[in-house]
Design a protein that fits this description.
The protein is α+β, with helices and mostly antiparallel strands and 606 residues long. The chain contains 21 helices and 24 strands. The strands form six sheets. Strands 6, 9, 10, 11, 12, 19, 22, 23 and 24 form a nine-stranded mixed β-sheet that branches. Strand 7 and strand 8 form a beta hairpin. It is globular.
Length: 606
């Protein structure tokens, strides 16, 4: 018999009764009865019940054995009495009578319990992540992650893609986030950068004559943490294809994404095909380019109803619309009938505190004396009856409903309205479980206005092909015309989570020079920062495009967790620290000297 196990702890069944069995695993839980000690023994595969009787010479040692100790138990497998069967686990009809027991490794006092999965502070969980990972839910999430990656890889290979690995040590490039820099010992004073994405390399793979590339690629960005973004590093399904249109990319990737979600849906619905929503439409209907299509209502631009103060009696919104601003309505069906005024007041407080905005106007609708609908809340209180009726008809609202109003400059007004749409739906329990609703968001603007630097800059990906090519770039003379230029850029969104960004690439050097010139970057910048790619384009580059779905976010959605940390083996905390490995850490002077580096003291006042 094997030294440690003849079976796993999740493997034993009634047909094994009578066999001599050896199991190894962790002491998950102990229950002491008058005539026996019951141990739930756990390994990667499941749990088996072990029974130790007082006649066993190791009985007292078993009683003292701490939880999470590793033991090896040998004995005869018995059938449980009918009343003792545990239908919740696969091994619930049998138990192992311990005839021999070896304590392989006794556990010290635990900093957090494994059994029960109680909520514990993040710093304790991350510092002792190896214990946290023993917990059933987190353990299953990580297993699923591996299975999802296997599924993605298999589907890509079956679709004719070939996996390649691109460099980790590369050059710094301005791609929107901060780089992680690595000093070069052999090239004093110079630095590598960890790749924010394999963007340039995967395009160069196409220029090199390969046709369909993918990899499960590690990416590194010095960004702050969010619920759906881990600081430091993440993984994506990186994809690039030659001689393709935008539609070709959709046809190749949509079945992969839908297939993976269907494989791990566990009874949840995956809606296909994915609808295509232009960026402008997405912002106007949902206030976001990451729309959650499960929410059963859209935003409405009601600015036209607030331009004439004589009809509304509400000068605040009239002033906003008069200066070119927007009033966006967020419906809350049934809220006036089902919620107290506190619900509406809390939404206003949320807008001010969490969103750092002036607030949300609101109105509760009720049956008016003499018929019709009115509201005694300030925004609609003084509306002319016919004007109010037209407004409510446009929004599809009636007595018993509520409505919120986001007002201000167009961008901030839609941003607040989009966030309020999500919050209203969540607070009113209007978002259905058990369904994955995808969409493609398409036709992104090529450029945006950078308020901080008061200049035109790229909005999404500087390597994208503008719709219209060189002609549209040369014909755009004013800022307004430049901001109207669309690119062949697209995102996949699922349930309000952006899963991937992609684009048809700009494969022509002259168009790239012009595109960067419009954003304020001269040819010397292009040739310095993107030398490899711009030079390659001068020697014959195929039309190409790609996409990069985020693996972490895919698994997060499939696992049903709201925190990306729960699908990553060893994540950092919100301050980009690895509490378990004590990273980042100081290095000694010898290492600094080898790298020709000298530390400058940090000025706490800076």
């Amino acid at each position: 018999m094997h030294a440690y196990r003849s079976h796993t702890c999740g493997e034993l069944r009634k047909e094994n009764v009578g066999e001599t069995v050896r199991l190894s695993g962790w002491v998950h839980r102990k229950r002491e009865h008058a005539n026996a000690l019951f141990i739930d023994l756990r390994d990667h595969y499941g749990i088996s019940q072990v029974v130790v009787y007082p006649v066993a010479e190791f009985y007292e040692a078993a009683k003292r054995c701490p939880s999470e100790s590793v033991i090896t138990v040998t004995g005869e497998l018995l059938a449980r009495d009918a009343e003792a069967v545990n239908a919740e686990i696969g091994t619930g009809e049998v138990e192992l009578r311990a005839d021999e027991m070896i304590i392989e490794s006794a556990a010290a006092s635990l900093p957090l319990p494994v059994f029960g999965e109680q909520d514990y502070p993040e710093d304790i969980r991350l510092k002792h992540r190896y214990l946290d990972l023993r917990r059933e839910t987190l353990h299953k999430n990580i297993i699923m992650r591996g299975q999802v990656i296997n599924s993605l890889r298999r589907r890509m290979i079956d679709s004719g893609f070939t996996e390649f690995q691109t460099p980790i040590l590369t050059a710094s490039s301005p791609e929107g986030a901060r780089d992680f820099l690595v000093p070069s010992r052999l090239n004093p004073g110079k630095f590598y950068a960890l790749p924010q994405a394999p963007q340039q390399f995967k395009q160069l793979i196409m220029v090199a004559g390969f046709d369909r590339y993918f990899q499960i690629a590690p990416c590194f960005r010095d960004e702050d943490a969010r619920a759906d973004r881990s600081p430091g590093e993440f993984y994506q399904l990186d994809v690039e294809m030659s001689f393709v249109t935008q539609e070709d990319v959709f046809q190749a990737i949509e079945p992969v994404m839908a297939g993976v979600f269907e494989e791990f849906a566990d009874g949840r619905e995956v809606q296909t095909p994915f609808p295509r929503i232009p960026y402008k439409e997405s912002m106007e209907k949902y206030g976001s380019d990451k729309p959650d299509l499960r929410i059963p209502f859209e935003l409405t631009d009601v600015s036209e109803f607030f331009t004439d103060e004589s009809k509304t009696g509400f000068g605040i919104f009239a002033k906003i619309t008069g200066s070119g601003g927007k009033v966006i309505a967020i419906p809350a069906k049934g809220a006036a009938a089902s919620q107290s005024r506190k619900f509406f007041d809390n939404m206003d407080k949320w807008a001010k505190k969490e969103m750092q905005m002036p607030g949300l106007g609101y109105a509760r609708l009720k049956e008016a004396d003499g018929g019709g609908v009115d509201s005694q809340d300030p925004v609609l209180k003084n509306f002319e009856a016919a004007h109010l009726k037209a407004l409510l008809e446009k929004m599809g609202l009636e007595a018993g409903d509520g409505v919120f109003f986001s007002a201000g400059k167009k961008g901030p007004a839609y941003k607040l309205a989009g966030a309020a749409r999500n919050k209203v739906a969540a607070d009113l329990d209007m978002i259905p479980d058990g369904v994955f609703k995808f969409c493609w968001v398409v036709d992104y603007p090529m450029y945006e206005w950078d308020e901080d630097n008061e200049k035109i800059d790229f909005s999404h990906n500087p390597f994208s092909m503008p719709q219209g090519g060189m002609d549209v770039l040369e014909n755009a003379k004013t800022n307004e015309e430049i901001l109207d230029i669309l690119a062949y850029q697209y995102d996949i969104v699922c349930n309000g989570v952006e899963l991937s960004s992609g684009a048809i690439r700009n494969h022509k050097a002259d168009i790239m020079y012009k595109a960067f010139e419009i954003a304020g970057y001269g040819p010397e910048v292009v040739e310095d920062k993107f030398a490899g790619m711009i030079n390659a384009f001068k020697f014959g580059a195929p039309p190409h495009g790609g996409i990069a779905p985020g693996v972490d976010r895919i698994v997060m959605l499939l696992a049903g967790t709201n925190t990306i940390r729960d699908v990553i083996l060893f994540p950092m905390n919100g301050q980009a620290q690895d509490l378990m490995m004590n990273a980042p850490a100081e290095v000694d002077n010898k290492q600094l000297k080898e790298l020709n580096l000298k530390l400058v003291p940090v000025d706490p006042k800076a």
